[in-house]
Structures are given as structure tokens and as C-alpha cells.
User: Fold this.
Amino acid sequence: MKKFEVRTSTIEGKGIFAVADFKKGEVVLTITGPVISYPTTPDKRIGPNWFNIGPNTWQIADKACGWNFFNHCCKPNAILRNNADVVTL
Assistant:
């Protein structure tokens, strides 16, 4: 059972919201999707939801994994660990 759902957000249209409690250090989701090598920073032609995971290496998050709906927060309650897992603080 997923402990989060995607809902309308006042921050950026849609966002991730917890529907159950998480323990500290618990994995919220694992980012899945293709990994590409690109000589420069990719642009929006490859999609809007890519992120850098190493030198000239980028991951394009699958829409189904939930990553596309994470919003920035100045006081975060989750972080990215090992370039794939979003875990709670």
C-alpha cells in the first residue's frame, strides 16, 4: 500500500501528500526510469523531470513513480538518498 497520494497543491498544481505516518529514514518511494549519458545539461526536449545522478549522467523519472509531483520546500521532510530513494528525515 502506498503511503502517499497525488493531490492538488497550492504550490505547483499537484503534489505528494502522506496518507499514513512514516518512520524516520523510511523510503517514501524509489525513483525509476531510464538513465542517460548526455555531454551537457539536458533540456526540456527529453522531458521536464530529469535530474543529475553523476557526471554527465541523468535519470528521467517515470511518471508512475511519483517523483514528478514532489515540490520544493525550504524545510524539507524528505531527501534523496543513493540517487534513487526518497527517504524521510
Observations:
- Residues 22-88 form one domain.
